[in-house]
Amino acid sequence: xxxVSQHPSWVICKSGTSVKIECRSLDFQATTMFWYRQFPxxxxxxxxxxxxxxxxxxxxxxxxxxFLINHASLTLSxxxxxxxxxEDSSFYICSLTGxxxxxxxxxxTRLTVV
Amino acid sequence: GQQVMQIPQYQHxxxxxxxxxxxxxxxxxxxxQWYKQRPGGHPVFLIQLVKxxxxxxxxxxxxxxxxxxxxxxxHITATQTTDxxxxxxxxxxxxxxxxxxTRLTINP
Lengths: 114, 108
Known about the structure:
The complex is a heterodimer. Chain A is mostly beta strands. Helix content of chain A is about 0%, strand content about 50%. Chain A has strands spanning about 5, 10-15, 20-25, 30-40, 45-50, 55-60, 65-75, 75-80, 90-95, 105, 110-114. The radius of gyration of chain A is 13 Å and the shape is globular. The mean pLDDT of chain A is about 95. At the A-B interface, strand 5 and strand 10 of A face strand 5 and strand 10 of B.
């Protein structure tokens, strides 16, 4: 399966600052990646579809200006949480399919906004 | 998009007991996938079911897809402490929509 590397694994930031999370496909050229958010003891909620070379597609209720997604190459997608607030504290995780049906996930990033 | 409802939300068992989680949809699913997420970890793919009435086994795990392709189940026989985690069903092609997950805890 595809190998997905996500960085950082955890981050603590001050309220009002921005945080960038990277998702790298190490062995597959991914035209599409997916970003999920998971609150404690809850399910994974799809935030957006990251498209290489074009705009991301956001799910209903997800603010595109707050969660900036850039997919500038076939191996890297970034999610920037802008002007983070404590309610943005969550587990953010990316995935790709690597040309197969099943999803391969990054290790996830635990964001804590203080 | 299509939603899948998953029950139960939590299940606590004694080691050695069986465990089952169920996913249900109001509409016909093209496929259903199952994932396991260990505490603090990321989801890991277990299996995909595509055919009506399909049953697949992985050692102590049995996966079923309903005849109408609207429901699915994961059954673990004789649970072990290594089975601890949250089990999610998901449906879709590439873009997955997940059920709420069933968190399994085990008393050794």
